[in-house]
Amino acid sequence: MKKFFLIGLMGLMGLVSHSVQAQLTIPGTNVTFRLNSEDWRYLRTFELKEGGDVYLYCYVGEVITGAQGDTVLPQLRIYVNKNYDGDLFEFVYDRYERQPYQSLWEFSEGQGLPASGGLGYIGAYTNPNDERDYQFYMTYFKDKKAFVEFRLETTKDTFEQMDFEFKDILGSVK
Predict the structure, then answer these.
(1) DSSP character for 48?
(2) Nearest in space to 99 (alpha carbons), one of 127, 118, 120
């Protein structure tokens, strides 16, 4: 029997609606982005205690099978913190301390980062709960008074298969 993995779900809840292929605006920001196909589904919005929101989407298009034969559901998580007092580098470090990862590549504006003055990473980590390796794009930037993080993640063995989808979404962020 195949196992289904929702990568990075942390039991959070909420509600947001949208139409696929339209420019979507993140509430409370000037940030817009586009989901490139109907293969992406909105799951939920989570309110965080420290004054942020997480908007969670999942890829449900063609079935993606990992090396272990399990069905993998790549995810897009958008984290918005409206109450952070530090600068961008402190924000990035704070987020890193919450979930350490190995940085495989760091990039900035002109190298695929959607906003000026931000930071981006391709990173990897092993989840101790399922002992699987994951890989992701993560970008950080500031908009108005909010710090925004886009994280597109899947298992390490399916990352290359999802790379085009991930880059297309990041490329649409304005």
Answers:
(1) -
(2) 127
pLDDT in tens, 33-53: 999 888 999 999 999 887 789
Distance CA 114, CA 174 (A): 6
Hey, what are 63's tokens?
A: 């079935």
Residue 92 has a pLDDT of 87
CATH number, domain of 13, equals 3.40.1000.10
Mean pLDDT of 57-67: 91
Task: Supply the pTM of this predicted model.
Answer: 0.81
Q: Which tokens hold the place of 69? A: 């034969």
For 67-130, the DSSP string reads TTS-EEE-EEEEEEESS--S-HHHHHHHHHHHS--EEEEEE-BTTTBSSTT-EEEEEEEEETTT
Token digits of residue 125: 């980590």
Residue numbers of the domain that contains 79: 4-172
DSSP conformation class of 1? -
Q: pLDDT category, 61, cuts 50, 70, 90?
A: confident
The count of domains in the chain is: 1
SS3 171: helix
Residues 133-148 have a mean pLDDT of: 90
